[in-house]
Amino acid sequence: MALHPEAGKPASKEQLVNVARLISAYYTNKPDKENASQCVSFGTSGHRGSAFLNTFTDTHIAAICQALAEYRHQQNITGPLFMGMDTHALSEAAFSTAVEVLVANGVSLVVQEDRGYTPTPVISHAILDHNDNSDVLADGVVITPSHNPPEDGGFKYNPPHGGPADSDVTNQIQLRANQIIVNDMADVKRIALVDAYNSDLVKEVDFANNYIAQLDQVIDMQAIAKAGLVLGTDPLGGAGLGYWDRIATHYGINIEVVNRDVDHQFGFMRRDKDGKIRMDCSSPYAMAGLIDLKDKFDLAFGNDPDFDRHGIVTKKAGLMNPNHYLAVAINYLYQHRTDWPQDVKVGKTLVSSSMIDRVVKSLGRDLAEMPVGFKWFVGGLLNQEIGFAGEESAGGIFLRRNGKPWATDKDGIILCLLAAEIIAVTGKDPGEHYAELTEKFSAPVYTRIDVATNHAQKQVLSKMDKSVIQSTELAGEAIINIQTHAPGNNAAIGGVKVSTENGWFAARPSGTEDVYKIYAESFNGQDHLQQLIEEAQALVDSVFKSAGV
Questions:
Q1: How far is the C-alpha of 19 from the C-alpha of 150, rounded, in Å?
Q2: CA distance 7 to 349
Q3: Number of separate helices (H) and strands (E) present in the chain
Q4: CA nearest to 79, candidates 141, 142, 143, 127
Q5: For residues 20 and 32, what is the distance between their CA atoms, to the nearest angstrom?
Q6: Max Cα separation, the chain?
């Protein structure tokens, strides 16, 4: 995908979403029952879509919530459901729908007071905290499309284990929700929002209190305070914006919030690589505003709208590639968390950098390599078999300092604070640490590209097997491994990964957008990386041609 000429520049007024029209579309547009692309579809991170495309409407959310209420009853989940939302415009509308349907079904809800915003990791943390101290199991919902553009909405379910729901759960909810839609919503129970809030089934709390009070159990906040670091953050208008001032006050650290806007149009954003508004804290184009301010701070960081991702900005390195920071975080944690079990593994997705593999080997630790999707790490984190889990798209989580679980979903807040801890304890920022790793292990070049595709093509890609690889060579090197299943759990990766001694590529459809993704990495330089990408794209084209899509 070619770089858009306006990438990194301020958004234009012409491209800002008409929020009033979007909300109107949410309540008036109906999905076409015969169109598969407009059905409820849970990808790697829940159901996502846009009201303008008839893929995220009141109909979808009401059906999903009715199906979820029925699922909870079947599973005897009788505790509260913790529900949060991010700052996307459709999150507000979907929140109202969800309250009306869930309360009508007798579900007890715990929501942020004054209809405030709540980060994804805070909901995960709240679920685990409750279930550790109660015999009645709680679960949760986060209404968010993550970093997707302003016109999108998303709905994610976290069962009692606190992390993203597994496919067996989402498939059941998805199937029932689509059945409800086909039956013209006759099975949906619903009451007015005011009546729901006036019932005894909705409890308002301040989720931030407990989460912030426990942060020193997972991060050495005292070390950060003692170091006197000057920290900066751009929350990108996300759900955790109000958390940073409270964290700074609670622990006596210096955090300057450089952007305090909450704007459903996200008009303050810089354009992403394709010219769109996308709140991706791992993109140097979306994060250009904070990068411009990097010299003001010892460290700066940003997050996406639901705060499950992180972007780390240092004075010399600028915005760190997510893979680079994950490698540094792993190298630091497994040497400084001395209370963690000695046999605790490192979790990574199959498409994350092989630099991590080299770091893990040097630490004498075992690697748990999983398919894309954070749900694959939940069991290992809960059982304290995995100490750190991370994915290439700037998501990560790790255990408390005493080795107990903190949360089982990605937590962008603690990944940002960990970068500050690394400086405070070692005197070097994460960028400097990564430079040292490249001196030891060589410097790979890595990329991920998104290519527009359709539903039929995505289905074909998700079912690829080893037989699609006819060649014995890739980019001039012998192929040494072809993978369609992850070695960490033998689960299908929904695509294929092909490796040589000095490089690899993986191709798989996105679970949340109408694109397919090609990931590639080379330890032989940029030209070799480009060759890997070209051969990967040729492979995908041949798969489409053979399937006639």
A1: 9
A2: 28
A3: 17, 23
A4: 127
A5: 23
A6: 68
In one-letter notation, the amino acid at residue 480 is I
Which residues touch 393 (CB under 8 Å, ≥6 apart)? 282, 309, 322, 448
Q: Amino acid letter at 394?
A: A
Query: Which residues on neighbouring strands pair with residue 153, listed in sequence order?
Result: 49
What residues are paired with 397 via a beta bridge?
389
The Cα–Cα gap between 527 and 511 comes to 29
Q: What average pLDDT values come out for the chain (549 residues) when binned by 10 residues?
A: 89 97 98 94 89 98 98 97 98 98 98 97 98 96 97 98 95 97 97 97 98 98 98 98 98 98 97 96 96 97 98 97 96 98 95 95 96 93 97 95 98 98 98 97 90 87 86 92 93 92 90 83 94 91 87
Asked if residues 270 and 289 have their Cβ atoms less than 8 Å apart, the reply is: yes
Catalytic residues: 146
State both tokens at 203.
Answer: 């409890």
CA–CA distance, 413 with 335 (Å, rounded to integer): 21
Kindly state the tokens that stand for 446: 């890595």
Interatomic CA distance for residues 121 and 428, integer angstroms: 27
3-class SS at 62? Answer: helix
Residue 1: predicted pLDDT: 58
Rounded to 5°, the CA angle 164-170-172 comes to: 150
The C-alpha angle 36, 41, 45, rounded to 5 degrees, equals 150
What pTM did the predictor assign?
A: 0.94
Contacts of 105 (CB under 8 A, 6+ apart): 65, 66, 69, 70, 189
Beta strands in 87-246 (DSSP E): 109-112, 139-143, 152-158, 202-205, 230-234
**What are the tokens at 108?**
């007890």
Residues with Cβ within 8 Å of 240's Cβ and at least 6 positions away in sequence, in order, are 117, 119, 122, 303, 307, 412, 413
CA-CA distances (angstroms) from residue 549 to 24, 68, 343, 459, 460?
Answer: 35, 34, 47, 10, 8
C-alpha to C-alpha distances, 308 to 116, 181, 449, nearest whole angstrom: 17, 31, 21
The pLDDT value given to residue 532: 95
